[in-house]
Amino acid sequence: MENTKLSELSALIFPDLCDSDTVESLEELFPQRNLPEGAKVTRIAPSPTGSMHLGNLYGALADERVAHSSGNGVFMLRIEDTDDKREVPGAVEKIIKYLGGFGLNFDEGATADGDSGNYGPYRQRARAKYYHIIARKLLLDGRAYPCFCTEEQLKAAHDVQEAAKDNFGYYGKYAVHRDMPIEEAIEKIKNGEKFVLRFRSMGDPTKKTPFKDSIKGNLEVPENDQDFVLLKSDGIPTYHLAHIVDDHFMRTTDVIRGEEWLSTLAWHIELWNACGFKRPRYSHTSQVLKFDEEIGSKRKMSKRKDPECSLEFYYTTGYPRASVIEYLMTLLNSNYEQWRSANPDKDYREFPFSANKMSPSGALFDLAKLNDISKNVIARMSAEEVYAGVSEWAKEYDPDFYSLISRDPAFTTAIFAIGRGGKKPRKDFACWAEVKDFISYFFEETFAMDENEYPANVSAEDRTAILSEYAQNYKTEPDNNAWFETVKNLSEKLGFTSDMKAYKADPTAFKGSVADVSTVIRVAITGRQNSPDLFAICNLLGEDTVKARISAEVK
Ligand code: GLU
Fold this sequence. Notes:
Number of helices: 23
Low-confidence stretches: none
Strand order of the largest sheet: 1-2-3-4
CATH superfamily of the largest domain: HUPs
Distance between the termini: 108 Å
Structural class: alpha/beta
Bound molecules: glutamic acid
Shape: elongated
Strand content: 5-15%
CATH architecture of the largest domain: 3-Layer(aba) Sandwich
Radius of gyration: 33 Å
Number of domains: 4
Largest sheet: 4 strands, mixed
Mean pLDDT: 94
Helix content: 40-55%
């Protein structure tokens, strides 16, 4: 009798399901994956809100590494589109493009216009039937029930809990519809009353379940007693139900997700058990933090306050993908830096990545450190690679600069060759957006003189004397040494000294040193005090340009 009533209730709640829609049918439809021993299956499950932040990349890199360093593992993209109000058109494309740009490619999952893989659909809204099948099983097993509480009733209960200093939520005496007779529920549904489907918890929060998290270690989780919502009134699942159903039938082996999910972990543990499914391994990643100079302490990164929080930032400023990945790897695995020093030339993918080595407390993001790493990454590139990186970036983000540098690719590449290679390569820029300023003086269009750059201790007359002397005798020198000899001779001739020791001992004996003379020449040619090797710059600019720039400064 009870059973017939339960079947009637179930038919009312799940009119979309027929008898053949069973859990067993799903088990058959999505068989265990035939993967080599130890291969791991991971996924990211972002919402299609169109905004991607550093935390997303950080988490995705962990997922990708865990899957791909496990030997034939699988890295999936699942879209959590259950909240259509937040959905932004084109968001999935953006996720794929932005992560793909950092070398993270999915083996399976949602694609821009569909799906790829045998465990889909990979968009949650297209999986309604699967959630309903499991929810129906829970209902028939007595582990789920409809709840007709209105918003107002829930709010009133919340107020009572607040006054009584009780835990919030739907449990114990507050779970008012938990024991509603089935006939009454049937009646209400027939009358068109709105309802949600809740889980029927059997947990006792005074008891603790031991739980092993790959990152946080051994935890003790108090049992759940919340009758949380499984299906909302429109039949759409909550994260909790969708997580269990999807990760079970997609055969995820490792759930790597943010630590904000620890607070509902007990719900998930109980739900896995109620469904009779084997739980995957869990890794709860800590948040990406930043040191805030203003408040003098660490805080969560914020999209509003920190431009570097958004992934867009790394594209618009043009950080090479290798730099960002290299930095995130150091944040993700504490032993990465040590491995990198021992293996400077290896691809980061060769590093034996392990979730166990991830920091259980927050990862501290430091833009200065990223810049440092990026300068090193760029310093190790060939001039051709730098040219390719800069022009690819400029094409999209700075078209004027792109036309300038692509006018004569060989010339631009030669600029990047200055100071490159050798034991101590120059480390000028951390991202491609910084290049424009560094090389502006190589192009007439962007060359700018700044009088203030001239050394203050050289008088206007001496400056003119140095420059006219230099221009008159200017010739293309055979090498750097010969060039410096010329500058030394010129210095001596004009009362400056090339003997640095003598200059230090008694600076008043001279007008200045050869350093001042070469700075004057450097400023006249480049418009700035700091530049790479001036001899190489002169060679590249050519005699006519050098002479013209110097003559323009003889005033
Ligand atoms: N959409 C969820 C989030 O971004 C997914 C969590 C998970 O990976 O299970 O937090």
